[in-house]
Amino acid sequence: MQTWQSVLVGVAAVAVALAVGSIRMVQQYERGVVFRFGRVLPGVREPGLRFIVPIADRMQKVSVQVIVLAVPGQGAITRDNVTVQVDAAVYFKVVDPVKAIVNVRDYQHAVGQVAQTSLRTVIGRADLDTLLSDRERISAELKAVIDEPTEQPWGVRIELVELKDIALPETMKRSMSRQAEAERERRARVIAADGEYQASTRLADAARTMHTTPGAFQLRLLQTVSDVAAEKNSTLVMPFPVELLRFFDRAGAPVTVPDTAAGLHDAAVLHDHVDHR
To answer: Domain Band: where (predicted)?
Structure first.
């Protein structure tokens, strides 16, 4: 009797152990791939409590979360023969757990190697100016290059690729700095020249307007004298009307009269320390 009881207890213990061994917990962010005697079963196990056949089945869980992979800096030569070092970040996730387990060993390491080689390839196709100014296009091209050999064969989809840093040689940095300074200086000169041209155009228009109104010259003269006197200078320079010189010329005085288009002459100077205090 005791022997049969021991056998029943042993059988019950084995049954409990097999039942416990057949239960698997699949988390929300995981999918389970079941192998039966080494052959993968169709379909994947969804999150929750899942049962497998003890001894015959083996479940391998695969995370379907987005994985961030840092691509170390890669030295490459651009299309215009500039040596740069670029590092990037690759965001990817598993979309087919069966392919990720069966078709490739250590898919994370494989994606990292593909990302490094693809990064050097894309850098070699672009010139330096495009690499620095159009990072979005470079990132999109890099994503397409990495995604091509990974999604269909390995069941891994590249979500996003971002260039993190672009390291340039010191000589190239100095050259770019000088180029930027020269460009800013060119813009400043162009702006100054354009301002001079607009000012000269306005002055010419004002001169023509004042030429039609003789009294405007006297008003402008008085305004200039007022502006100079406000500075409390000790010397005052004033234009002298040429009509007075012509009057003396007609009277017989030996005076040389220069001819001007506006009828004024700015050669006479009244000075001798006019004190405004």
So the answer is: 21-180
Burial class (CB in 10 A: 0-12, 13-18, 19+), 143: buried
CA angle 130, 136, 139 (to 5 degrees): 95
DSSP letter at 46?
P
Q: Which CATH class is domain 67-173?
A: alpha beta
Query: What pLDDT sits at residue 79?
Result: 87
Domain segments of the chain: what residues?
2-63, 67-173, 211-265
What does pTM read for this prediction?
Answer: 0.61
- Tell me: pLDDT of 211 over 60: yes
Closest CA to 266 of 233, 234, 220, 230: 220
State how far the Cα of 239 lies from the Cα of 245, in Å rounded to an integer: 12
What are the tens digits of pLDDT across the range 150-164? 888 899 999 999 888
Taking the C-alpha atoms of residue 108 and residue 154, their distance in angstroms, rounded to an integer, is 11
Taking a C-beta distance cutoff of 8 angstroms, is the pair 123, 116 a contact?
no
Structure confidence at residue 265 (pLDDT): 38
Amino acid 270: pLDDT: 35
